Amino acid sequence: MKVTDLANALNMKIVHPGKDDAEVTCGYTSDLLSDVMANADDGCALITIQAHVNTVAVSALAGVSAVIICGNHPIPSDMEEAARREGIALLQTEHNQFNASRLVYGQLFGANA
Fold it and tell me: Which residues does residue 29 pair with via DSSP β-bridges, in sequence order?
């Protein structure tokens, strides 16, 4: 599923659409960046509350397609700029990590979550 399709289906704010409207193939939920580096799959949407520039750097290393910031946490300008530079989509949602994960799973895999 394309990043913009996922964001629109779940009513998420698109802060930056990423490069070429990348595909999201799975999700990964974590607030521990070393965990993301070790375990996130290529093409995943990272679901987190870690709204800072290091999240984008780790996402670029891990091959993450989109970062979803939960709880409407404010996104600092340096994080947005890093996402633009790295071509990673940056989304924002009011949902907490649990509900955002459930919704992303439902969209990607068609489950009634």
Answer: 47
- Per-domain residue ranges of the chain: 3-109
- Alpha-carbon distance 22 to 98, whole Å? 23
Q: What are the phi and psi torsion angles at 93 (to 5°)?
A: -140, 155
pTM: 0.95
For the segment 32-67, what is each residue's pLDDT rounded down to a tens digit? 999 999 999 999 999 999 999 999 999 999 999 999
CATH topology classification for 3-109? 3.40.1390
What is the three-class DSSP state of 8?
helix
DSSP 27-71: EEE-S-HHHHHHHPPTTEEEEES--SHHHHHHHHHHT-SEEEE-T
Handedness of CA 30, 42, 88, 17 (dihedral sign): negative
* Helical (H) or strand (E) element with 13: strand 13-16
Strand partners, 89: 66
